[in-house]
Write a sequence for this structure.
């Protein structure tokens, strides 16, 4: 008798940008939630190195950052037993399908993408890779027939295009692709199918702007910052006038942001933290917030250190991941090649 197949989980796919300087804003807003999703979905997560090269990259840095992103996600709890982790360029079916999708993508659809317009604004010479970025992203997704795609809000338009291309392909060549739904980040509550933006983590030096990898270092706490640096950054974070420690983003944006960080890093409710610091000074609150951040990052930093010393084992994880992803991707491509009439080799 054949063993009964376990009931398959639904698939979710997402690509991550290897950008370096990953900070607690990235952790709270994305990485942490990825790690939670792997308990619900059969996840495919890859480092989008081929997307990275749509803007000029230093080859050595690109390589280092690709590996660094993998170390970081593994250190934060992405588990290769639950999630298929790989590097986009290791699965050549991504580029193959992207080419095929390009042949059914109207130029106008690509030209109207907000990200394309933003990235090329004021440029004299626009590279074709930037224009075709969304068809590669559509290929990344459609290869695995996922139900869900965790993305930031700014990627939703690309996902819409992916759905359009899936429909187009299906209507021309027969039912092949599912239309995946975005799972949009809502940092306060986790992922939601409905969209909207929750409490973002803002800059320590300017609570009106998102914490950012490209701003000055005082703006953010990086995941690998030392305890000393974290303390310094938290203590010099801007605060609001008054002295109350209260979550009130409209009137107390800086303190609200610090409370959000405290809550997200410790898993404690904001109300509970407010109560604890009722009547306390900003200085006391900040000192203990810094300690909480240091404590919650310690296990991540320790794991990162171990992984970075053991590159071979990480490369093995990526090899396994590419093998598994490649199998799923090749099954899709066999079907696609046949449907569009490419002669089998
Ligand atoms: N473009 C995405 C970003 O900027 C990264 C990405 C590439 C992606 N391919 C993907 C996300 C496929 C989801 C699915 O974040």
């Amino acid at each position: 008798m054949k063993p009964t197949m376990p009931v398959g989980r639904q698939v979710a796919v997402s690509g991550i940008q290897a950008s370096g300087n990953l900070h607690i804003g990235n952790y709270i807003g994305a990485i942490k939630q990825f790690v939670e999703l792997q308990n619900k979905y059969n996840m495919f997560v890859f480092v989008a190195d081929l997307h990275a090269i749509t803007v000029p990259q230093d080859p050595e840095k690109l390589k280092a950052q690709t590996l660094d992103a993998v170390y970081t996600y593994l250190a934060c709890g992405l588990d290769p037993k639950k999630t298929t982790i790989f590097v986009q360029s290791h699965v050549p079916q991504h580029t193959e399908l992207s080419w095929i999708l390009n042949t059914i993508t109207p130029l106008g659809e690509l030209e109207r993408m907000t990200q394309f317009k933003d990235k090329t604004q004021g440029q004299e010479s626009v590279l074709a890779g930037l224009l075709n970025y969304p068809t590669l992203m559509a290929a990344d997704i459609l290869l695995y027939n996922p139900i869900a795609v965790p993305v930031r809000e700014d990627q939703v338009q690309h996902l819409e295009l992916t759905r359009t291309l899936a429909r187009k392909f299906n209507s021309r060549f027969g039912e092949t692709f599912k239309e995946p739904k975005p799972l949009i980040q809502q940092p306060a509550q986790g992922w939601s199918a409905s969209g909207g933006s929750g409490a973002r983590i803002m800059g320590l030096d300017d609570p009106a702007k998102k914490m950012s990898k490209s701003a000055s270092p005082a703006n953010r706490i990086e995941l690998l910052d030392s305890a000393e640096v974290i303390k310094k950054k938290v203590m010099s974070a801007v605060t609001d006038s008054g002295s109350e420690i209260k979550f009130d983003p409209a009137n107390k944006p800086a303190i609200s942001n610090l409370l959000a960080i405290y809550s997200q890093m410790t898993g404690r409710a904001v109300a509970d933290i407010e109560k604890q610091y009722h009547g306390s000074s900003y200085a006391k609150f900040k000192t203990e917030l810094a300690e909480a951040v240091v404590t919650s990052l310690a296990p991540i930093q320790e794991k990162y250190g171990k992984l970075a010393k053991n590159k071979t084992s990480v490369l093995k994880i990526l090899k396994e991941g590419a093998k598994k992803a490649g199998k799923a991707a090749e099954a899709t491509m066999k079907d696609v090649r046949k449907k569009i009439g490419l002669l089998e080799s």
Notes: The radius of gyration is 22 Å. The pocket of tryptophan is lined by residues 13-15, 17, 48, 51, 137, 140-141, 149, 151-152, 155 (CB under 6 Å). The first helix runs from residue 24 to 37.
